[in-house]
Structure prediction request, 348 residues.
Amino acid sequence: MSSPDPPSPAVETVRIWDPLLRLFHWALAATVVLAWGLGKFGPDIMTLHFYAGYAVIGLLAFRLLWALVGPRPARFSSFVYRPREILAYAAEAWRPRPSYWRGHNPLGGLFIVVLIAVLALQALTGLVADPDDFVNVGPLAASVPSWVSGSAPGWHELLGNLTLGLVALHLGAIAFYKLWKHEDLIRPMLTGRKTVRRG
Amino acid sequence: MRRVLLAPLMAALPAAAMAADAEHVVEARKGYFSLVALEFGPLAAMAKGEMPYDAAAAKAHASDLVTLTKYDPSDLYAPGTSADDVKGTAAKAAIWQDAEGFQAKGMAFFEAVAALEPAAGAGQKELAAAVGKVGGTCKSCHDDFRVKR
Prediction:
């Protein structure tokens, strides 16, 4: 085979994302969008928003468990990178060619950590929020000091906007990979199979 | 000499008096909502099952709430008493900028309270539904007109 320019890396198409992880991903996307939409535009009696929030909490618990005992690409060890690795990846991420990364690349891994942290804080502030309306009071609001439950709704709203920003960043990154780097990240999240560097 | 000294003092007086008035208005306004919360709190607790349902007590609390809605609250919203003007209040300036919208939210609350009165004594389920509606009007107004802490 004549050597192309630039040399194409040795790649293979393998299953990277297991079925439960994929189900988790789409369920999280659906419940977060639902919770956000219901919180922003939903009924004033926020029962459905609460249920969507509980679903997000359950999914986050699954993801943390999966990061400990799940298949290799789902584990903490596969998406928590050193700052140096993240910077090194970021320095070359702009190049218009596929990453062929096996699982979460260092930037993507950083995003996962940030997203999980923000969603966990979002859930926590929701659970302890007391918005002074007697009907939309978080189930743990009575277990925290009133200055916490009183300020929680404000933080909850701020974190909701931050979550919206993170979702936009996520979609922007996928578009960037598709259009600029010619790497489809959506299909692997549907089928589980991704073309990656051999190794 | 005395007149010369007094003149700036006199000029400063109305402003000082108004600030004191604004603080009093804020205090009274918070007192009003403390009364609302005092009466509505047990109803919400009964609605959620955190407190045993007591038809007589529920009726009494609902009737007190109705009494509170008979009070014309416009004095509680004197101009110059928003969170932008005075410390210790969460009243958004939007209350005065969008007086019509604010009044509509207030009316929704009054109407929900009116519906609460007959429901309160009718049973826990009826109470819970009516309490939910009142709480919804609290939220709806807080969303637009209350500063988030």
Summary: Helices of chain A lie at 19-41, 47-69, 76-79, 83-93, 106-127, 146-179, 186-191. Chain A has one domain: 20-191. The longest helix of chain A spans residues 146-179.
